[in-house]
Amino acid sequence: MAHEITDTQCQPPQSAIKVDEEENDSPIEQVRLTVPPTDDTSQVALTFRTWVLGVSFCIILSFANQFFSYRSNQLYLGSVAAQIILLPIGRLMAATLPRRVIKIPFTGFSFSLNPGPFSMKEHVLITIMAGSGAGGVYAVHIITSVKAFYRKEMHIIAAFLLSHTTQLLGYGWAGLFRKYLVDSPYMWWPSTLVQVSLFRALHEEERRPKGGTTRLQFFLLVLICSFVYAIFPMYFIQAISYLSLACLVWKRSVTAQQIGSGFSGMGLGAITLDWNTVVSFLGSPLATPAFAIFNTFAGFVLIVYIILPFLYWGNIYEAKRFPIMSSSTFDYTGQHYNITRILNSETFDINLDEYNSYSKLYLSVLFAIAYGLSFASLTATLAHVALFHGKTIWENMVKATEGVQSKFTDVHTRLMKKNYREVPQYWFHIILAVTLALSIYTCEGFGKQLQLPWWGVLFACLIAFSFTLPVGIIQATTNNQVGLNVITELIIGYMYPGKPLANVAFKTYGYISMSSALSFVNDFKLGHYLKIPPRSMFTAQVCNKICPSSLTCTYILPYIYIYKYPPTQMVGTLVATTSYFGTAWWLLSSVENICRTDLLPKGSPWTCPGDNVFYSASIIWGVVGPRRMFVDLGVYPQLYWFFLIGLFSPVIPWLLKLRFPNSKWPEYINMPLILSATSNMPPARTLNYTSWAVVGLFFNLYLYRKFKGWWARHNYILAAGLDAGLAFLGIIIFFALQAKEIYGPDWWGLRSDSVICPLATCPTAPGVETEGCPTYS
């Protein structure tokens, strides 16, 4: 007789274990309102259905997201779409699959195709695996830059290993820091509460309030309304995504359109009636704490409405020669920088003679100041964590090492420790060691196509290791992540100048492995809240030495997995990365002139907007290098002062905290958030920020205070329903209509912001000539 594969089968039977809420519940109010302090250990988690559905949806999401990432109208499919679809499929499998036990020939292993009802824990594990297909693979940008922009060939095995090693390194970092970023109740990861609410709405039985709806009914109503409404901004009236009063009134004024355009300008007076515009780049505002929205919006106002006008109309850094906001690179005449003119075609590095005879590299003033703010946000993160969380981190590390109960545990941590076996730390050490060796081989082998030497890989890993904990603390408490992309580009740009591929490879190993680690930790926290057995999150191995002798310690689908401990999250990562890589390689090899807007046919959707930003960064930091950009030979040497500005900026709220020890408000001033507020600009637009802040403050400040009961019951369900309706409609429109070149009616409502505000991107310096723009004398 086969036994279900779960960590709980070796535990005494328990159901709905609950502890005294007053004494043990979470110290975070949002968590108390969303996550129940219970655990039903009778639910199965790792089953045949988990593997089949998890792997299938992982492939589907990764293919769709990579496919659409190359198109002008991008579509991102998050795990929430799979989360909804999975429920009826899982229940259908539970109702139809045979329950007989299948034995694996010549082994002692057996499993059941149908262990019983489709449980919430199964659903969570499947969604986490599928979510691996929604996260993206940053290394694909390198492959795209080489093949599409630089027009070079790349060894397919090198590209394959690059994609996988950068993702799996993050899995190792996640294992090292999970004790501090998962077990601590103060690391509450706000975004996970949206999924917790949705899972509860889909699985928990509840009575419908008189005159009201259940949470599942509310979710379905929101999904339907979002689905129906979204057809207007996505297909029939696309102009309502970026409405600008200034552009409609002052049709011939460059300055008015620079100020009023919500897409290419400062966005004053611009509004949106499109939920996709609200959630693009910054995520759902309903899932972000009010204090984080305050800090982000304060930084946005400071940078875009105070610093940017001063720099642009003061013509600092020759700002008027270029668009006020752009992610492109320019020469002194205001034209797009001709990179082929300065790049040595044989050695693939900078030709200094050509560079000196051509032009220095220039950026739009917002793009330039974004790099300075990246410097500041990095040092501010370290200082903020040291001042505000240093004592807590140290005590947490000591308590974790001693293995004693402390104030750093809550009911969720205690239930997990009590009911389930922990994942041995050496499992993560093995993954980290193997992946690191493969990373070095990827860079040193294949004719050193990636240009990065072995010491560069090790140094990049040291950076990722050093920043995962402090950046994780920021994200776990504010729902915002400070990026390491700029500092990694800067470091390798100094150490190994003129090598574009070495620069982007170093950035990917140093920054993306950390970012991937925090994504994994986020999944661990979701499993923590919903009481998924840790070894079910990591492995299909279940029983331990205390199992009754009558139980057979079995594995699910062991013949598929060579290893004794097949990790579910890592399998999802491997499958998703392979799918992302395969889709990208296929499109780069089959779509002629993909990403080359100057060579593509008019109206072609294959413009690769995200890859353009990545390509520009490879020119700035890799080809030209930081010395010729930000030091004595460059245009922007003053930006290095931002390192000091960021380092000392958290001292102000820290001193306020000391001055007002009984007040909480100084702790809400988060300088890393303020300084990194516009880190997504470009490609994010001003209207993305303003609409996100307005919606977020309305729900998480006003409604949270005035209607806390409604907020606790409906806020996160509303966020999930709005996103799900948008995702489902996007799938239908892309595949059923736009993939067949069927677009909406040709009328004014289909005009984009670039058509309504065509002058917002025009330079205003005298003598600069740009097609479609007036020339100033």
From TrEMBL:
One of its GO terms (biological process) is protein transport. It holds the Pfam family OPT. Keywords: Membrane, Peptide transport, Protein transport, Transmembrane, Transmembrane helix, Transport. It is found in: Membrane. One of its GO terms (cellular component) is membrane. The chain crosses the membrane at residues 48-68, 75-94, 124-144, 156-174, 215-236, 290-313, 361-387, 426-443, 455-476, 568-588, 639-656, 686-704, 716-737. The keyword Mitochondrion does not apply. Belongs to the oligopeptide OPT transporter (TC 2.A.67.1) family. This is Oligopeptide transporter. It comes from Trapa natans (Water chestnut).
